[in-house]
Amino acid sequence: MANRRSFTLNRRHLLAAAAPLWLSTTARAASAPATSNITALTAAFYAARGGRPAWAGPARRQAMDALALADRHGLSAPDGLALGEAELTQAVLTLAEALAHGRVDPATVETLWEMDRNQVDTPPLLAKAVEDGTLAETMAGLAPQDRGYQGLCDGFLRYRAIADRGGWPPFAMGATIEPFASDPRLPALLPRLRVEGDLSDAAASMIGPSGGDYGSVLQEAVRAFQVRHGLEADARIGPATQRALSISAEARARQIALNLERRRWLKRDVAPERIEVNTAASIMVYWKDGRPVHSMRVVTGDADNATPSLERPFASVVANPPWTVPTSIAQREILPRGAAYMRANNMTIQNGMVVQRAGPNAALGQVKFELQDSYAIFLHDTPSRGAFERSFRHLSHGCVRVQDAVGFARLLLAPDPARLARFDAALDSGETVRVATGRPIDVRLLYWTAFLDGQGRVAFRDDIYRRDTRLAEALGIALQLPRPDDRRADADDVGP
Questions:
Q1: What is the pLDDT of residues 223-271, one digit of tens each?
Q2: I want to staple 223 with a disulfide (CB 3.0 to 4.6 A). Which of 31, 233, 285, 349 is the partner?
Q3: Is residue 283 located within the same domain as residue 401?
Q4: Known active-site residue 153
Q5: Whole-number Å distance between alpha carbons of 181 and 281
């Protein structure tokens, strides 16, 4: 039976509760200082227990099991066996807060972020769990339960285990390795591709003993690696592929830990019908009835015009939309080109703003999906189709260009034949017409540089917006990733 005596927080306990238990980062996990409100959380926990101590008898074993959860989530926790009552409470609450809300307030590291935070009152929840003997289960349930998060947890443990075994051989940067060429760097590539799963054991057995010839089997494995990293899948081991190959298993584990942290910020309940754009990968996925049913490529903001992270609904599509050009784009890229350029691109000045009339070559294409956000960000069509064939698609001024925007609009309107017919008629007429979807549809613009691909593998992308870098600094993580190649759009591409 638990000790029923009253537990009072005195000055010694408060000082202990305020001491950081998430120590400086090791090579094994992301960490951060203790939350600033840990003293208030501790007081609330004991208030929910009527002032009684929590960790006598079997409850201490519960706490040990709960703290052991940290490792899977890319977090670190102290050894609870060495902790007293108040210190152990702080450790459990700190981990609970990290799992429920993340270690870092996104407002301190993100400048373009409008997402709904997860909201959980952890002290009374944990106080009840201690009484019920379900502390570890309750703590595990605080973390996101979706496949994307839990799969990344598995990936973190896997990459960290690879790092603990010594990682993979370093890949030396140098000249491009062409298919069917010979190169002394190729033998070191084989164990790397095998340990990450891009080269199966059966395929590896078909490669010659030296491994120095770049034949078709090894080329296929390199293509799989390139696809998983968002690179041109041409089997040429050029600068971009070599940069990805140069990243250590330890760095990849830390990158996964950062993305786990970013996911913990978000509310857990998401709409069963929604549109999710991974702005780091320039990929859009449409979810219906809680399942991903359609995906396509998109173009997102370049390094100087980052697409924000936001969650907002839209309830209508606009056929044949005009474009009111933002003042910054007009002053920097349109007005200096003069009246002839504006006439050639069907632009006029209306009420002091540059406006491009709707038309087949207009920057917004044939359809726009309007969002209700403070950044004036939206999804839209584009006449510039070539960008969708590129592996690197961070080319816009921040808005999201959709590969088959007209087809996607028709997909969203298909449940109501009358709305679909109105949209099709508007496209044929060339008139600007707003067509309601008949229901609000959530749009989530997310930033995942490590995520599960369609085959359940961990995929990686460059930190094009340097958000991993800022988050790593806030968490005290030493992150060693090569700086991404910030390729720019064509100078004539002035769309949003």
A1: 999 999 999 999 999 999 999 999 999 999 999 999 999 999 999 999 9
A2: 233
A3: yes
A4: no
A5: 30
